[in-house]
Amino acid sequence: MVGRHEGRQDGRRVLVVDDEASIIDAVATALRYEGYDVVEARTGRAGLSTAQSEVLDLIVLDVMLPDVDGFEIARRLRADGVTTPILFLTAKDALDDKVRGFGVGADDYVTKPFSLAEIVLRVKAIIQRSSGAQPDADARLSFADVVLDQDTHEVRRAGALVELTATEFNLLRFFMLNPRRVLSKPQILDHVWHYDFDGDSNILETYISYVRRKLNAAGPPLIHTVRLVGYVLRETDVEA
Questions:
Q1: Is the peptide bond before 135 cis (omega within 30 degrees of 0)?
Q2: pTM across the whole model
C-alpha cells in the first residue's frame, strides 16, 4: 500500500459501491488510509442515490450487484448528466464486458481478484486525469476545428460541444499536445494512464474508437492509425 507520506488526498470524496462486506470494508479502509473521504453503499440503489445527490471525485462501482447492476447505474448517471469518474470492480474479464463498461461511461476497469495497492493506484490515476492539473500548460489547445479548454474541461468541434469522459478528455489532450506526431501505444498508456496497464492495448483501442466516433460526428477524421506503430492526430490521412 502506498504510504501516507507520499501525498495525502484530503478533500477527495470517493463512493465505494459493493454488496460484499469484506470487499467494501477492505477498499474503503485502504482509501481512507491514503487520506480519501470515503462514502459506502452496499446496494445498487443506495449507490445510485448517493451518486446523484452528493459531490464526489470518483465512484468505485461493483458490476454484479443484486438489485441494480453497475452497468445500469453508470448508464443512468451518464444519462442524468453526472460526469463523476467511475472505476468498475468486477469478476467479468471478457473483452465484451469491458467494452460494455466503457460504453456506459466507465473510466477504468479492475477485475477480481485484485490487490488493494492496485485499487489505490488506479483511483489516484483517474482523479489525476479528471482534475487535469497542468499548471504550466495553456488553458486552451486548438487543432483544426477542435478546441479543448483545460480549465472548463470542455471540448468543442466546429463550435459544437463534444461530451467526453475524464479519460477520453485526457486522451484527446495528449494527442493535441502532440499534433502530427506519431504516438506509440506504450507512449499513450504511459502519459494518459500514468501507470503500467499490463500491456492491455485493447483498452486503449476501445478509448481511441470512442474518441474518434465522438469527434467524427462533427467533422472528418482527425485521429488516424499508423499501422504497426500507433496513432497520429492530423487533418489528412496518409497511407502508412
A1: no
A2: 0.59
